[in-house]
Amino acid sequence: MPHLTRTTRGAASTEVRIGFGVPGFAHPLVAPVEWAELARPGTPLKWVVLNVANGPGERPDPHCLEAAGRLRNAGVRVLGHLDTMYGARPFGELISDAHRYLDWYLVDGFRLDRCPSGRAALPEVRRTVTTLRALVDDAHIVLGHGTHPHPGYAETSDELVTFAGPWSDYRWSQVAEWTADHPPERFCHLVHGVPRGHLDEALRIARWQGASTIYFTDRVDGAGARDPWESLPGYWDDIVSRVGTGVSE
Questions:
Q1: Burial grade of 3 (CB within 10 A; 0-12, 13-18, 19 or more)
Q2: What is the rounded end-to-end Cα distance, in angstroms, of the chain?
């Protein structure tokens, strides 16, 4: 398999301790079970994205504030969702949304979704990230490329989402060579449509490719379908137990 072609990386990555990065559930009134599960003690969470309305919304939402507060009280990072529109979103709009997230929900950092990945956009992304870090002490910044970007982005953020897509692509995916220069804590994989019977294989791929943050779901993305990230996977308890044990492959 292509994801097993790098012997050196694989040998170093079998001891990777996996944790979850949750890309964002539906509104707490629509998905109360999901938000409650995230606050359950012992769940190996690294961060959870709060996406109120493709951003912070127009006014504070008490239900989102309550959900975010429960997670932060449990020691879980809550990140605001900022849509960069692949670099088309004006800098001022992004920073304005960031201020709303901070004022209304006291977030611990941000995930820049649909982040550009080319070298030409790197200076503007750096400018945005530098400004965000000035707003929040110890801000955790995740760049949501969904693919392997130019290596310079790794010096700008805390984590890069280097895969976001379906299981049919993930199981044959390949890792960029430059990622071997960085620890697994710097990379995240988000995969939908993962069948229960392939969870072990999916976890092996993440470890071999050197990604310690993951979110796998059996929900699928399709025409007219809901966002696959809006609800818990049907095997949530199963994957929590597998990841929580820190089992190596």
A1: buried
A2: 16
How far apart are the C-alpha atoms of 144 and 187, rounded to whole Å? 10
For every residue of 114-128, DSSP letters joined together read T---SGGGHHHHHHH
pLDDT digits (tens, 9 = 90+) for 232-246: 999 999 999 999 854
SS3 217: strand
Whether pTM exceeds 0.85: yes
Q: What separation in angstroms does the CA of 117 have from each of 80, 184, 240?
A: 20, 19, 31
Rounded CA-CA distance 186/227 in Å is 25
Pick from 107, 116, 185: which is nearest to 152 by CA? Answer: 116
Q: What percent of the chain has pLDDT over 90?
A: 86
